[in-house]
């Protein structure tokens, strides 16, 4: 018969061994004795004695340390102080130069950026808050999208040809005019416009689908020739060769004419069978994009080769044939060509259609409207005469149009007035940004110069816009507040050798002022130490004594 467990034993089992049981009993006795009042008083007295020792000992050690430091400083020579100040000036100067370079290149302070990104989370970081409900976040995002204009990158309607213009610039100057970000956006556009789901059914289109994703230009050109070997009527292959292999506008126009012949034939076939399936509808959209692109580039070739009336007719026909493709901004190409013809009545007719409050604006729309109104008064405009007799109604309208244009894009006047140097425009632009200003001024500066007095009127009035919008990032006058994201996007779109225009101008960060002051102060101390060594040593010892006096006073009071 098994033994029964002892009453009161935990779990019905005793200690595993006698030694453990005795240790457990001793621990229980010690714990009960420590809980008595006299034991607690003894522990409190020991803690008080330890604290008293620390209070009495620390000031003594602090006084001894300060005495040792004072003795060490009294033994230093003038050469040491000179080397110290020179080294401090040199290091702070390096930090100042780096901070200035980082601010000019990226628009932010490096020290401030590191402090916010890395040190703040280590010190404490932002207080964590519970996640908001998904419905609330969705509503907040929708509200922010309605209240704040989006920094959207657009295809430049007047973009140049890579082989005939961008590449020639690189051959002459050795500078890359396009950024990787800009070319990557173009590759995405080509894949969107020139490919569809049915490309796998045609070997030539399959090759071109891979060609648009190639990073190496020579690999893209080689793939285009492979596609033409498979199908001599591959329109997108001719488009790629016209854009990248042709080294002159004449050669590019020849390739585009071949692409037009092939594209029209494929477009007619797609029209006949587009209602058969969704795949055929997608193919029709792709063939429509190819045809519109080719006709537009042919019109641009005619414009560049001096056949301006032919280019205007091609653009008008294209806009009539495909009226729903207004998002491609073909009217901006038409405006530029009409200005070259000096057909200002036709320009006004185009503006009457597209300069509408319900349509998105652009620098070309706003500044062309200002140019037409300035044309009516600029020839007789004089600042001295206007200040004496005041502005006429026509002059007020011209000034208001200029203020409207400057509010939309404040970077343009500096390029039109040749206060900043121009570079080749990128393939994509940011509306209201420096990239759009470069693209507009590159093509329209000649039209402003052609009208006598237009640039003089712009020079006299454009800065008055900023008095109407003292806080452009918070509130605008005729448009939304100026977006704060333009600088970052423009730095990605424009080449590195171009100095990006920033609006509104940022104040220099605190650390640039601090490092500049520290460098200047250290250099001044180094110069004084070199010229008056004995006097500066006495001054340094006096400063060290004054600095150490409060610590000595505290230690004496503690004693």
TrEMBL record:
InterPro entries in alphabetical order: ST7, TPR-like_helical_dom_sf
GO cellular component, one term: membrane
Keywords: Membrane, Transmembrane, Transmembrane helix
Pfam families the record matches: ST7
Membrane topology: Multi-pass membrane protein
Family (UniProt): Belongs to the ST7 family.
Designated name of the protein: Suppressor of tumorigenicity 7 protein-like
Lineage: Eukaryota, Metazoa, Chordata, Craniata, Vertebrata
């Amino acid at each position: 018969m098994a033994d029964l467990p002892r009453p009161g034993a935990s779990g019905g089992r005793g200690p595993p061994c006698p030694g453990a049981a005795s240790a457990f009993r001793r621990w229980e006795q010690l714990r009960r004795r420590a809980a008595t009042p006299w034991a607690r008083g003894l522990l409190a007295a020991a803690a008080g004695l330890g604290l008293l020792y620390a209070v009495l000992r620390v000031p003594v050690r602090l006084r001894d340390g300060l005495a040792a430091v004072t003795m060490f400083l009294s033994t230093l020579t003038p050469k040491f102080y000179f080397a110290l100040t020179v080294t401090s000036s040199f290091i702070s100067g390096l930090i100042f130069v780096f901070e200035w370079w980082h601010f000019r290149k990226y628009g932010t302070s490096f020290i401030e950026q590191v402090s916010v990104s890395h040190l703040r989370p280590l010190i404490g970081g932002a207080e964590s808050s519970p996640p908001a409900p998904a419905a609330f976040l969705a509503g907040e995002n929708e509200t922010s999208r309605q209240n704040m204009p989006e920094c959207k990158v657009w295809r430049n309607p007047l973009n140049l040809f890579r082989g005939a213009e961008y590449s020639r610039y690189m051959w002459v100057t050795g500078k890359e005019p396009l950024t990787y970000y800009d070319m990557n956006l173009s590759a995405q556009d080509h894949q969107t416009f020139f490919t569809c789901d049915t490309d796998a059914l045609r070997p030539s289109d399959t090759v071109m689908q891979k060609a648009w994703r190639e990073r190496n230009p020579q690999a893209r050109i080689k793939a285009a020739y492979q596609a033409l070997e498979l199908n001599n009527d591959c329109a997108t292959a001719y488009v790629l060769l016209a854009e990248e292999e042709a080294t002159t506008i004449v050669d590019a126009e020849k390739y585009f004419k071949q692409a037009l012949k092939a594209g029209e034939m494929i477009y007619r076939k797609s029209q006949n069978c587009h209602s058969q399936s969704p795949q055929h509808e997608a193919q029709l959209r792709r063939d429509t994009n190819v045809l519109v692109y080719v006709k537009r580039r042919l019109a641009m070739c005619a414009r560049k080769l001096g056949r301006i009336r032919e280019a205007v007719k091609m653009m008008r026909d294209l806009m009539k044939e495909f009226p729903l493709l207004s998002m491609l901004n073909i009217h901006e190409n038409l405006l530029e060509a009409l200005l070259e013809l000096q057909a200002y009545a036709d320009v006004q007719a185009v503006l009457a259609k597209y300069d509408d409050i319900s349509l998105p604006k652009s620098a070309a729309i706003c500044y062309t409207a200002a140019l037409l109104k300035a044309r009516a008064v600029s020839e007789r405009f004089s600042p001295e005469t206007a200040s004496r007799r005041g502005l006429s109604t026509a002059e007020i309208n011209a000034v208001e149009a200029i203020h409207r244009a400057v509010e939309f894009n404040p970077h343009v006047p500096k390029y039109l007035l040749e206060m900043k140097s121009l570079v080749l425009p990128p393939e994509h632009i940011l509306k209201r940004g420096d990239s759009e200003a470069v693209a507009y001024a590159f093509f329209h500066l000649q039209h402003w110069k052609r009208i006598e007095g237009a640039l003089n009127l712009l020079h006299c009035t454009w800065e008055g816009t900023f008095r109407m919008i003292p806080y452009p990032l918070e509130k605008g006058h005729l448009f939304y507040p100026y977006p704060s994201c333009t600088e970052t996007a423009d730095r990605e779109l424009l080449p590195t050798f171009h100095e990006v225009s920033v609006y509104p101008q940022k104040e220099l960060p605190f650390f640039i002022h601090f490092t500049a002051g520290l460098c200047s102060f250290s250099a001044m101390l180094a110069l004084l130490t070199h010229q008056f060594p004995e006097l500066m040593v006495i001054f340094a010892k006096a400063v060290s004594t004054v600095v150490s006096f409060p610590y000595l006073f505290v230690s004496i009071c503690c004693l």
